[in-house]
Amino acid sequence: MTDKNVRYSAMKGSEFLKRIRRLAKLRGLSCEWHPNLGKGSHGVLKLGNRRTVLRNPKDELKTGTLHAMLKQLGLKEEDI
């Protein structure tokens, strides 16, 4: 199975954050995580000039949530 066929639907928020940080470093983009800008366990993740809300990094992201966050950041699933 190639990497393009791998689905990342069962991913924790902390793993998502780690992958986004790695991608930002590779692409030379700024990546900022602001856990204090959200309510409760939510925080704001900024990638370049785009942003999304990341819920509790300790919990698994649901498939729809993961896809929506990627769309808000202008990424595709195979990017991460």
Walk me through what this model shows.
The protein has 2 helices and 5 strands. With 80 residues, the protein is α+β, with helices and mostly antiparallel strands. It has a single domain, classed as 2-Layer Sandwich (Metal Transport, Frataxin, Chain A), CATH 3.30.920.30. The strands form 2 sheets. It has a 3-stranded antiparallel beta sheet with strand order 2-3-4, covered by helices on one side. Strand 2 and strand 3 form a beta hairpin. It is globular, with a radius of gyration of 12 Å.
General form: globular
CATH architecture: 2-Layer Sandwich
According to CATH, the fold-level topology is: Metal Transport, Frataxin, Chain A
Q: What top-tier CATH class fits best?
A: Alpha Beta
Average pLDDT works out at 88
Portion of residues within helices: 25-40%
Uncertain runs are none
Termini gap:
17 Å
Structure summary, number of beta strands:
5
Question: In order across it, which strands form the biggest sheet?
Answer: 2-3-4
What count of helical segments does DSSP give?
Answer: 2
Radius of gyration, taken over Cα atoms and rounded to an integer in Å: 12 Å
Q: What is the percentage of strand-forming residues?
A: 15-25%
Major β-sheet profile: 3 strands, antiparallel
Number of domains: 1
What is the N-to-C order of secondary-structure elements (H for helix, E for strand)? EHEEEEH
The computed structural class is alpha+beta
User: What would you give as the CATH superfamily?
Assistant: Hypothetical protein
